Amino acid sequence: MSRLDGKVALVTGGSRGIGAAIARRLAAEGADVALTYVANPERAEAVAEAIRQDSRQEGRQEGRRHGGEGRRAIAIAADNGDPAAVRAAVERTVEALGRLDILVNNAGVFLAKPFTELTLEEYEQTMAVNVRAVFAASQAAAAHLGEGGRIISLGSGLALRVPGPGLALYAASKAALVGLTKGMARDLGQRGITVNVVHPGPTDTDMNPAVGDKADAARTMLAIPRYGAPENIAGMVAYLASEEGRFVTGASLAVDGGFSA
């Protein structure tokens, strides 16, 4: 029996990079998964289909079938900049998959720009996607989560350490998740719901490749001088989502190769 059998998870921004790795890992642990996307339905559906195919393959290897047709997975169009769309994605997950046990707030935007050149519009957009959407999704999810429910948000190592200029706005948006997480943990803990934030360090994705222009400089800031893989982050999320993580709440957990050490 897998750790998340019978659970349903929603992963925002689950069509690529860390989000896709999280969606596939939670499914591999037994969960049915909904994932949101903004601009590329084909890529999102490819992740959902990979989950279904992985499950069918697992069923063939073990001589059984999960849920008749394998692990369920759906892709939902939802812009994190629109709180109504975020809330609707939660309701769509419950409608399509029957319940909600795990919310992973992964979707976000990154803007690097000198502080004195930032506009109010850029501030509003960054906070809307990186903070307001987490608030909206978590509030909507809380209406459906029961005992053992999980809310896990993706922060950033930059919430803990800002190594250079141009990162003030992004760092502020991710640092805000720490306070929000601690507060939600207090509000929801009496219902047996845990709330945590995971801070990735430099992680090899298409938006931050380990062979990119700034990769060598980033590696010098790490205690382990190599980029992480999306699967490293997904492993921490899976632990927090499982029964083993039931006594961890209100925590900020760095998976960053020592970036914040």
Automatic annotation (TrEMBL):
Domain Ketoreductase: from-to ranges: 7-203
Top-level lineage group: Bacteria
Transmembrane regions: none
Region annotation (Disordered) ranges: 52-71
Alphabetical keyword list: Oxidoreductase
InterPro entries, per the entry: KR_dom, NAD(P)-bd_dom_sf, SDR_fam
Gene3D superfamilies: NAD(P)-binding Rossmann-like Domain
Pfam family, one: adh_short_C2
Family: Belongs to the short-chain dehydrogenases/reductases (SDR) family.
Protein name in UniProt: NAD(P)-dependent dehydrogenase (Short-subunit alcohol dehydrogenase family)
